[in-house]
Design brief:
The complex is a heterodimer of chains A (569) and B (260). By secondary structure, chain A is α/β, with parallel strands linked by helices. In chain A, 35% of the residues lie in helices and 18% in strands. Chain A has helices at residues 25-33, 70-80, 87-95, 97-107, 139-153, 218-225, 253-256, 283-295, 314-320, 322-332, 388-409, 418-433, 440-454, 461-480, 492-516, 534-537; strands at 16-21, 40-44, 60-61, 121-122, 132-133, 157-160, 162-170, 173-181, 186-197, 230-231, 236-242, 260-262, 305-308, 341-350, 353-355, 367-369, 374-375, 438-439, 458-459, 481-482, 525-526, 539-544, 551-556. The longest helix of chain A is centred in the C-terminal third of the chain and has 25 residues, at 492-516. Chain B is of the alpha+beta class. Chain B has two domains: 3-106, Beta-grasp domain (Ubiquitin-like (UB roll), Roll), CATH 3.10.20; 109-246, Fumarate Reductase Iron-sulfur Protein, Chain B, domain 2 (Orthogonal Bundle). Helices cover 35% and strands 13% of the residues of chain B. Chain B is built from ten helices and seven strands. Chain B has helices at 35-46, 80-87, 109-117, 139-148, 156-160, 162-166, 173-183, 191-198, 212-216, 223-239, and strands at 3-11, 21-29, 65-68, 71-74, 90-93, 100-102, 105-106. In chain B, α3 runs parallel beside α7 (173-183). Chain B is elongated, with a radius of gyration of 21 Å. Chain B starts with a strand and ends in a 21-residue tail after the last helix. The chains are: A alpha/beta (569), B alpha+beta (260). At the A-B interface, α4, α5, α10, α13 and α15 of A face α1, α3 and α4 of B.
Chain lengths: 569, 260
């Protein structure tokens, strides 16, 4: 890794083999999979350890036990996806899971242990077997630290605090990226033979989200603008249990360990929604159940239901759920040993993303994507808990290996067209000098409110059409908005302005997909079309950029062994 | 609350200002708001030019360490009300012991260089088992190391450590607790490689057990205690002449590091 904070001299004439954008789990795993003989560099808009992978709590799924089979894991994943997952991809994910987990173990991950020393596993939503390997309730951090340490050991170069603005395309293939060096404000062009995006999610589309400030969908929007289609954008996951107010995540592991959800009438209401799996039903079902309880007046005054852990005992709570114990005390002044935790659903994950194949490849030669920003699609209409960490490791590696193969075939990177650098240079200069009447801040706030109110857990035509109008109005306002910071050094104002543009592009795809998909499937629930409609909608939507908004295409769902069935739990 | 609170923020833009100055913002806050929520409100609606790092909002990414009312803390884990109760306002300065760059941003370079100096990765004692084989670890080893591995690289210990303030070479609490996490991992065999960076006055022997790091750590890691265990281990290893026999799978004597 480059030493941090120092401004690395990025020579515009120097070309890299592989550029990885994003230094979370998927990005670092991709970089570690790239042939060390090749020149690989990772770019991140933050220091690597700030990536949101570290926030994952509950676990990583793998069929490790003799009594468990990867085929069962695949079935649970596909059923959980409401049959929208590409089944070949889901099978690949689950078959590779044990390898991925043991690899991390051998690299040093501190997993929680069973009494005999083996990796501990717990129950997670929508699964027929306790197969979520965990490290207390900080599994993401445990995995991330290990990968980060491997990256240090193997001297992976990271350019920290570089903000990628655009893909450079030439000769119908990827040519590199354009990025701002945040410390100096310089716009630089970095040529490369292959580019891998591992840029994470877009939770900043929503007001209520577990996501970090940095989850602004940069990679998705950049790919989309470069002509690479996005897929399944209407499928947004709302995590059932977040703390009201900040919407900090309260792990599904709390329910996996036996926690109850109760409404204001002291009723374990999940019995009415998923009598068999109860609290560990898949996330889409539990989130809707909670929202329904609240809407029908059985919630608490702060718009919550209660997550009751008291019967689990202090020892379990303080050891296996130590992080959420701390959250409840820090942010709500509630000790979960003695009192239930108020929870409400919040945006958590975006199932859709850059359309990729099993090797992370996209329609643009040399351009790959992995992790939350990609849609392979293994999660379909609803991701199972503890499958996203797995996704990052399995498909991050796939992308790194594929980029290596691509570099072996393709000799030279095409030069980055001078015009694409100049266009951004002019744009940024204009922004810095523009006397705008409106700051992007209010636009961003209105976008979050719009998406939460009109494109959330429950949707219908009326609300979605209102969202479409509002997003269009915000896009118009954005054309005339500006920034307050006219400087170069650490100009976060400018970056947030660009991010707002990314979010506006993505919001249009989410709303458009949600409008056209006149059925209810997984996390996408249409009050006006409350049933799944396989005949018309067992297919992916693809979203292609145009100046007038997203143009919709379609792609078939890969079916291997599992015919779609009604989904009950 | 549901009222307004004064945020007094140290501002400085190296391209524009001769020296840092104080700016005051009248920030609307609600009950339960963190300092970071107030800062975001400043950036989004009062003054977009205020520079600070932030990401997860909930004390797990380590981005937003800063000096708040005189002490290094995470803005996202600090309640506005708690600060107001003591001082009537929120006073924000950049972290200490690192070069000042802009507003609340510091240059983290030395911190990361020192982290890398301790060879912070598992050096397995034996070749890893075949990919499909299980590698086991006793539960008590997990308990010992789990807390130490909670580190989020927030640099708060580095900012609060008086030794880091007077000795630019001192590795600092973070690098040392990281070394502890590997030195006490029964699967690790990196003691010889880490001896040079650890066993000198810029390593563990620089620590004067002031406990500032332990007091300030937002993750509650008993850092000082971990560093003292490293000292005892290094003494034991030196006395044993680095003979392989000293390596017992059990941690050396001393109180267990509580796992929570």
């Amino acid at each position: 890794m480059t030493t941090t904070g120092k401004i690395p001299k990025v020579d515009q004439t120097k070309s890299y083999d592989v550029l990885v954008v994003g230094a979370g789990l998927a990005g670092l795993r991709a970089a570690l999979a790239v042939d060390p003989e090749l020149q690989c560099v990772v770019l991140s808009k933050v220091y690597p350890v700030r990536s949101h992978s570290v926030a994952a709590q509950g676990g990583i799924n793998a069929a490790l036990d003799a009594e468990d089979r990867w085929q069962d894991h695949a079935y649970d994943t596909i059923k959980g996806s409401d049959y929208l997952a590409d089944q070949d991809a889901a099978e690949f994910l689950c078959q590779d899971a044990a390898r991925a987990v043991y690899e991390m173990e051998h690299w040093g991950t501190l997993f929680s242990r069973r009494p005999d020393g083996r990796i501990a596993q717990r129950s997670f939503g929508g699964q027929g077997y306790p197969r979520a390997c965990y490290a207390a309730d900080k599994t993401g951090r445990a995995l991330y630290q290990t990968l980060f340490e491997r990256a240090v050991a193997q001297n992976i170069t990271v350019f920290e605090e570089f903000f990628v603005l655009a893909l450079a395309v030439a000769e119908d293939r990827v040519a590199g990226v354009l990025a701002i060096e945040i410390a100096s404000g310089r716009l630089i062009a970095i040529p490369a033979r292959a580019v891998i995006f591992a840029t994470g999610g877009a939770g900043m589309l929503y007001a209520r989200t577990t996501n970090p400030y940095i989850a602004t969908g940069d990679g998705l929007a950049i790919a989309y603008r470069a002509g690479v289609p996005l897929k399944d954008m209407e499928f947004i996951q709302f995590h059932p249990t977040t703390l009201p107010g900040m919407n900090v995540l309260i792990t599904e592991g709390a329910r996996g360990e036996g926690g109850y959800l109760v409404n204001a009438e002291h009723d374990r209401f999940m019995a009415r929604y998923a009598p068999k799996l109860m609290e560990v039903a898949p996330r889409d079902i539990v989130s809707r159940a909670i929202e329904t309880e609240i809407m029908e007046g059985r919630g608490f005054a702060d718009g919550s239901v209660h997550l009751d852990l008291r019967h689990l005992g202090e020892d379990l709570i303080r050891h296996r759920l130590s992080e959420i114990y701390d959250f409840a005390i820090t942010y709500r002044g509630i000790n979960p040993v003695h009192d239930p935790i108020p929870v409400q659903p919040g945006q958590h994950y975006i199932m859709g993303g850059i359309a990729t194949g099993l090797e992370g490849q996209t329609r643009l030669p040399g351009f790959y994507a992995a992790g939350e920003c990609a849609a392979v699609s293994v999660h379909g209409a609803n991701r199972l808990g503890a499958n996203s960490l797995l996704d990052t490791l399995v498909f991050g590696r796939q992308a790194g290996l594929a980029a290596t193969r691509f570099c072996r075939q393709e000799t030279k990177a095409p030069p980055i067209p001078e015009a694409s650098w100049q266009r951004w240079q002019d744009h940024l200069a204009a922004l810095r000098s523009r006397r705008a009447t409106e700051h992007y801040g209010p636009i961003r706030a209105r976008l979050r409110a719009t998406m939460t109110d009109h494109a959330g857990t429950f949707r219908d035509r009326k609300r979605l059409e209102a969202a479409r109008r509002e997003v269009a109005a915000l896009r118009e306002a954005y054309q005339h908005a500006g920034v307050m910071d006219r400087g170069d050094v650490f100009n976060y104002d400018l970056l947030a302005f660009v991010e707002t543009g990314f979010l506006l592009d993505l919001a249009a795809t989410v709303v458009e997909g949600a409008l056209v998909r006149e059925e209810s499937r997984g996390a996408h629930w249409r009050i006006d079309f409350p049933a799944r409609n396989d005949e018309q909608f067992l297919k992916h939507f693809l979203f292609s950029w145009s100046p007038d908004g997203p143009v919709l295409g379609e792609a078939p769902v890969a079916i291997t062994h599992y015919a779609p069935k009604p989904r009950t739990y | 609350m549901g009222s307004h609170v004064v945020f007094q923020v140290m501002r400085y833009d190296p391209r524009r200002d001769v020296e840092p100055y104080w700016a005051e913002y009248d920030v609307p806050v609600d009950e339960g708001d963190t300092v970071l929520m107030g800062l975001m409100r400043i950036r989004e609606s009062l003054d977009g030019s205020l520079a600070f790092r932030a990401s997860c909002r909930s004390g797990i990414c380590g981005s937003d360490g800063m000096v708040i009312n005189g002490r290094s803390q995470l803005a996202c884990k600090t309640q506005v009300a708690a600060m107001v109760a003591v001082r009537g306002r929120v006073v924000l300065e950049p972290l200490r012991n690192l070069r000042y760059v802009k507003d609340l941003v510091v240059d983290q370079t030395p911190f990361w260089k020192k982290f890398r100096r301790v060879e912070p990765y598992l050096m397995p004692a034996a070749a890893p088992p075949a990919a499909e084989r299980r590698m086991t670890m006793p539960q008590d080893a997990f308990d010992l190391l789990s807390k130490a591995s909670d580190c989020i690289f927030c640099e708060i210990c580095y900012s609060e450590c008086p030794i880091n303030g007077i000795d630019r070479g001192f590795l600092g609490p973070q690098a040392l607790i990281k070394a502890f996490r590997f030195e006490f991992d029964p699967r690790d065999d990196g003691a010889a490689a880490r001896l040079a960076p650890l066993s000198n006055v810029e390593g563990v022997w620089g620590c004067r057990t002031v406990f500032n790091c332990t007091d300030a750590c937002p993750k509650g890691i008993p850092i000082t205690e971990g560093i003292q265990r490293l000292k005892r281990k290094l003494v034991a290893e030196t006395l044993a002449g680095m003979q392989p026999a000293y390596r017992s799978p059990e941690p050396v004597e001393g109180p267990e590091v509580a796992s929570s």
